UniProtKB/TrEMBL annotation:
InterPro entries: Cystatin_sf. This is Cystatin domain-containing protein. It comes from the Eukaryota. Gene3D superfamilies: 3.10.450.10.
Amino acid sequence: MVGGFSEIEKPEENPMLQGVTEYVQTQLPLQNQRYSFDSKKASELHLRVVQSFQQVVAGMNYRILYAVENTEGKLKGAFKVQVYDRFGDVSVTTWDDEVSVSEVSNILAGQSKLSSTDFKG
């Protein structure tokens, strides 16, 4: 859909989204949003894309739901974020709400989904 957000199929195979995830990982300890997991220890956490959307603008807008896992793969939390990538110049535009572990577990199990309108902004 031109101008609107569309869901990214197979986000684990999207190299642009992988680069955005690496950037979000580096910025996580610097953000001020309060999450139940310790975002200051981002180096000990793994971000897993649960669901993501993209919008073509002068660059690309992303709306991403991340599961936060510890080094053993245990789910510690989840959060939504919005990122703008202007041809390689990446910035987080919104550190969005935390998503409950039970809700993200349901999404991972295919029992529910978010829509692009479930994000702020």
